[in-house]
Amino acid sequence: MSLFSIIIRVRLPSEPLPWKLLLLADPAEELVHSYIQESQVYLAESGNTVVGICVVQPQTHVRAEIRNLAVAPNCQGRGVGKALLKYAEEQAQQQGICTLRVCTGNSSLGPLALYQKSGFAMVDLQLHFFTQQYPEPIWEDGILCQHLLVLEKDLSA
């Protein structure tokens, strides 16, 4: 494997959003539009190329939710998602956030493993969420995405 370095930073409001990446994690563009403006957007760059994104939306003064976390397919498995997640956690702690939440689908095996390895624990399950809320079926690795898994991490410890 070749040397791979990334820089993670806050997206400037004047910068265009990397829609291709955003839609990897959430194929409902209108839903992304509904939360992106009230969220903090973190970008992972390699050279001059954005290779990852993490979108964190405050829910209350002590709780936030990762609404979108995506890594370019050619950069997956190289620590970009893990680094974005760590950066988002650090930023949330600095802002006084005590609980960080993330939701994912039952078919998102890679992200689910990443979140659990990073200390997130499953706290809720919403059956049939994706089949009822999304107009088109979502398939990942031959698995129909049906159920929403809710995970949380306590950042106050």
TrEMBL record:
Any one GO molecular-function label of the UniProt entry: N-acetyltransferase activity
Matches recorded under InterPro entries: Acyl_CoA_acyltransferase, GNAT_dom, NAT_camello-type
CDD domains: NAT_SF
SUPFAM superfamilies in the cross-refs: Acyl-CoA N-acyltransferases (Nat)
Domain N-acetyltransferase residue range list: 1-156
Keywords for the protein's UniProt record, in alphabetical order: Transferase
Protein's name according to its UniProt entry: GNAT family N-acetyltransferase
